[in-house]
Structures are given as structure tokens and as C-alpha cells.
Amino acid sequence: MHAKYVAKDGHKASKRRILIVPILLLTVGIGLGAAARAGLSPTWASTVTGALAALIAGWSVWALWVAFRVDPLRDVDWATADTYEQELTFGLHPDARAALARAQDQVRRRLPFADRVHLYSPDQLPKHDCTLDKTGCDCARMRVNAAVLPNRRHPVILVGDRLLDEAAALAYVLAHEVNHVRRPWLLVYGALQVVTLAGWLGMGLVLPWHVLVVVAPVVWVATMLLSWVNELAADIAARTTGPDAARAFWTMLRAARPTRAGLSRLTGAVMAVLAPTHPPITLRAALADRIAHRPLP
Fold first, then answer.
1. Contact 285, 250 (CB under 8 A)
2. Any stretches that span the bilayer, and where are they (predicted)?
């Protein structure tokens, strides 16, 4: 099995988790806690809620262990990685190759137990002009973006094919993504996912409805703000790539955003409201434009 297919599947699973989990945590957590309080005696309600929270926490800890300590890609023939990466980078602009090499080196230094840091560009992506697409494809996110899968042994840098052709934008996005690979933040974010559902279960169990309708939105906003702060901090850290790199990326991303219609437009709007894990593009582009005029420290 080639490394790139496993990396592609892992990337899709990661995106689904990021988008779905925040929605389910709030509704399921509070709903189960409130249902336990309404249908069971106080003792049984506390027991059931505690057991559910323990199971969820245990599963989350196990998932983090698999992601960072165990090698989930152990069945991959990593001997094919060199040939694949040579083919991927052949013909790229020297600045693009330098940006990729710099990102690999930075990820390797932040994950010192890694055997090496691999590159992969997702395949089977739509070839048409994204701005003319009416199906709501993910080309804007996949083809002009990048991500890092921070596995302990075999971290993978995923890069969209259209981003590889824009050296300045590539350098900016990679600097942003590498900034996410910080062990303290990875641990904090993982711990947050472990305890969040347990906390909402507890809120549904303990808080009366008139208090719950106030506290739950506050907790939800705080959770989303934590994600926003992390994204904006990575944007600011990426300013080291120069004043024009951020502008190049946001201009390209705006041009590649799909035109949604019908159900795709509705679901996109719902996701933007319920799971705004990333700040709006307008805000991020404006911030990048402001900090571009400030000298580096």
C-alpha cells in the first residue's frame, strides 16, 4: 500500500472529526445529562452520567495514544516515499521546494522521535475551475491549502496541488500549519476534547433549564474562541514569510471558493454557525494585511 493513500484517508477522517465533534458535544452532552436527570433518581443519574463520561474520556485518551504514540500507518511501505516525493517536487519552483524542505525540518524538530517527515498531495481532486462549481466541492480547502498530520513516527505534510504552484502562498500556509505542531497545544487541545463532553454531561445533569440556556452558549462561545485564538496566533506567526505571502494566499483562496447552491449552500451556512472552528476569511485576511505593515521583531 502506498503511503499517500493512507495519508489521504487519515486527512479526511481528521476533517470529519473537526467539523462533527463540536456539534455533537454540545447537543449530545447536555441532552444526555438532562435526560438522565429527568428520568432517573439522583443517584442513578449521577452514576450513569459518570460512567458515560468515563467511557468517553477513556476512548479519547486511547485515540490520542494511537495518533501520537502508536504508528497507525505501520502497514505502509515507506520505502516508496522517496520516489513519490521526488516525483511530487520535480519541476517545482526552487522557492516552493525550499518552503517544503523548511517545513519538513521544522516539523521534525518539533517531533524529534519521527523517522522522517513525509510529503503528500491528495489525488483525485476536481480538475474544473472551483469558482464555476455548483456542487459545493471542497477544492478551496483541499487544493489550495495544507495540513500536518502530527504522528509520532511518520508525520505527514499534506499540500494541495494548486498551492504547490504558488511559492509565496505555500510558504505562508506551511508556516501557519507548522505553528500548530506545538506539543503543549496538542496536549491542551486533546485534553479539552476529553473533558468537554464530560463537562456538558455534568451541566445537563446539574443545572436547571433556566440556567442551562445561559451557561451552555457561554461555554460554546468560549470553546470556539479558543480555536479562533489558536488559528489567529498561527496566522500572526506565519508573518515571518514576508508581507506579500499572506496576501497571495488569501487572494488565491477567495478566487477558489466554490459557489454553493441548494442543499450545499444550506449545510455550509449551518456549519458556519454551529461549528465556526476557524475565523471568517474576511477577518483573517484583514488581520494579515494589518500585520504585513509591521516590522518583524
1. yes
2. 18-38, 44-68, 185-203, 209-229
Task: Decide which of 62 and 17 is more confident.
Answer: 62
In whole angstroms, give the CA distance from residue 288 to residue 242.
11
User: What one-character DSSP code corresponds to residue 237?
Assistant: H
How far apart CA 212 and CA 227 sit, in angstroms, is 23
Residue 274 has pLDDT above 70, yes or no: no
What does pTM read for this prediction? Answer: 0.70
Domain boundaries, the chain: 73-196+207-291
Q: For 12-134, list the strands marked E by DSSP.
A: 118-120
Cell numbers for 133, please give them.
462549481
List of residues 6+ apart from 143 with CB closer than 8 A = 125, 126, 130, 160, 161, 162, 163, 256
CA 122 – CA 11 distance, rounded (Å): 9
Q: For residues 128 and 116, what is the distance between their CA atoms, to the nearest angstrom?
A: 34
Q: What angle do CA 169, 147, 18 make, to 5 degrees?
A: 130
Average pLDDT for 287-296: 65
d(CA 189, CA 186): 5
Classified as helix, coil or strand, 203 is helix
Question: CA dist 267 to 135, 138, 276, Å?
Answer: 12, 13, 13
In sequence order, the β-bridge partners of residue 148 are 157
